[in-house]
């Protein structure tokens, strides 16, 4: 069975100030063409269909168009909700849409109930695990420990129990939206840390033939059977080095997996350039970036006059301007933002405690801070679901 694995469409999202809806529509067209021309038997969409719980109308219309075009192909599609989606909204009409071969899986309670498709070698069971917010689903799965690993492990126990009751030789595919250990993150993903831990081990998916993952925006192989497709379009300059693609996965009669990357159309290359303003304007080696979307980091000791306007004369698609004067780390003028770069909310709070009272928090106090951050994030998730 030939599967096309994609995820993280983020319909409705902009790239800095650039509206990406046209590029997203082009991707949908590319997806449909790939399905038709490569003889795909099933399409997998592993969450974050939309960029936010209440997407703009234009994004909903594009999603509706995608559903119609996929249904017209007569190729089944299995789709789960991600942490950016409103599971309840995305799942409206799932039963009716399922009759057209578009199988939306947004209910955690149904994770052990697969979509079963058949090829010449028998059944393939597709289990959809929507994004599992631990604070919201721990009671459903009967886990005491609130964390991603606990709820995912419990969900996978249901998957394995259902699979064990099926005919010998039934192959299996899981769609999941999570941060798996070994994956490389980028700046455009929303933090899903709980209890100071964001990642779960790849071993949680043991026992299935293929795990089609979503959430991380870079296409990557955790193991031969556990992969991220990544987002089809860039959503931050941290993705400048990404090859945007989908996985074309062949699942043979015995459940062995081979995978091929299918490149996605990207509207414009990304470039991150760094130096003084005069260096950036004069360096002939940067000519290759003149038509790219550019993030320029200026290292001038003193902020130059009209830097954006001057950069735009050479790099007309400059979207982001960062000032990072080259100073010693202990220089008192090093910016507050730079000191906070790459530090978690927990670390920043602990540093604040240390600054105020002269000593950092002890283990108990660290736990109090961690619980507070988790409670706020869980409350935001509850309010988003209730919208």
From TrEMBL:
Which Gene3D superfamilies is this protein grouped with? Answer: 3.60.21.10
The record's listing under CDD domains reads: MPP_Mre11_N (cd00840)
Q: Which residues form the Nuclease SbcCD subunit D C-terminal domain?
A: 267-355
Query: What are the record keywords, sorted?
Result: DNA recombination, DNA replication, Endonuclease, Exonuclease, Hydrolase, Nuclease
Q: Tell me which residues make up the Calcineurin-like phosphoesterase domain.
A: 1-217
Q: Which SUPFAM superfamilies match?
A: Metallo-dependent phosphatases
Please indicate if the UniProt record lists Hydrolase as a keyword.
yes
Question: Which PANTHER family does the UniProt entry name for this protein?
Answer: COMPONENT OF ATP-DEPENDENT DSDNA EXONUCLEASE, NUCLEASE SBCCD SUBUNIT D
To which protein family does this belong?
Belongs to the SbcD family.
Q: What does this protein do?
A: SbcCD cleaves DNA hairpin structures. These structures can inhibit DNA replication and are intermediates in certain DNA recombination reactions. The complex acts as a 3'->5' double strand exonuclease that can open hairpins. It also has a 5' single-strand endonuclease activity.
Q: What is this protein called?
A: Nuclease SbcCD subunit D
């Amino acid at each position: 069975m030939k599967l096309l694995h994609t995820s993280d469409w983020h319909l409705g999202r902009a790239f800095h100030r650039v509206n990406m809806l046209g590029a997203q529509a082009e991707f949908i067209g590319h997806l449909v063409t790939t399905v038709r021309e490569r003889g795909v038997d099933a399409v997998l969409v592993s969450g974050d269909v939309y960029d936010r719980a209440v997407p703009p109308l234009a994004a909903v219309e594009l999603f509706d168009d995608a559903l119609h075009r996929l249904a017209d192909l007569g190729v089944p599609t299995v789709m789960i909700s991600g942490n950016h989606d409103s599971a309840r909204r995305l799942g409206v009409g799932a039963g009716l849409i399922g009759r057209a071969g578009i199988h939306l899986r947004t209910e955690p309670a149904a994770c052990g109930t697969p979509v079963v498709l058949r090829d010449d070698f028998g059944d393939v069971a597709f289990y959809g695990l929507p994004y599992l917010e631990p604070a919201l689903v721990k009671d459903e799965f009967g886990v005491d420990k609130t964390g991603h690993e606990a709820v995912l492990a419990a969900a996978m126990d249901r998957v394995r129990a259902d699979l064990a009751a099926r005919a010998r030789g039934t192959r299996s595919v899981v769609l999941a939206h999570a941060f798996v250990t070994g994956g490389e993150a980028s700046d455009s993903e929303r933090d899903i840390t709980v209890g100071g831990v964001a990642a779960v081990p790849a071993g949680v998916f043991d026992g299935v033939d293929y795990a089609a993952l979503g959430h991380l925006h870079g296409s990557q192989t955790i193991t031969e059977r556990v992969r991220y497709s990544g987002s089809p379009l860039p959503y931050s300059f941290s993705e400048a080095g990404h090859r945007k693609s989908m996985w074309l996965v062949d699942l043979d009669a015995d459940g062995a997996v081979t995978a091929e990357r299918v490149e996605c159309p990207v509207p414009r290359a990304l470039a991150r350039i760094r130096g003084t303003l005069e260096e950036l304007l004069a360096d002939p080696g940067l000519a290759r970036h003149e038509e790219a979307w550019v993030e320029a980091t200026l290292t001038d000791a003193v902020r130059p006059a009209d830097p954006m306007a001057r950069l735009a004369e050479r790099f007309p698609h400059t979207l982001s301007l960062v000032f990072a004067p080259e100073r010693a780390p202990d220089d008192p003028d090093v910016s507050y933002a730079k000191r906070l770069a790459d530090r978690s909310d927990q670390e920043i709070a602990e540093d604040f405690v240390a600054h105020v009272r002269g000593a950092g928090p002890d283990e108990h106090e660290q736990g109090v801070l961690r619980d507070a951050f988790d409670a706020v994030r869980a409350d935001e998730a509850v309010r988003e679901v209730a919208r």
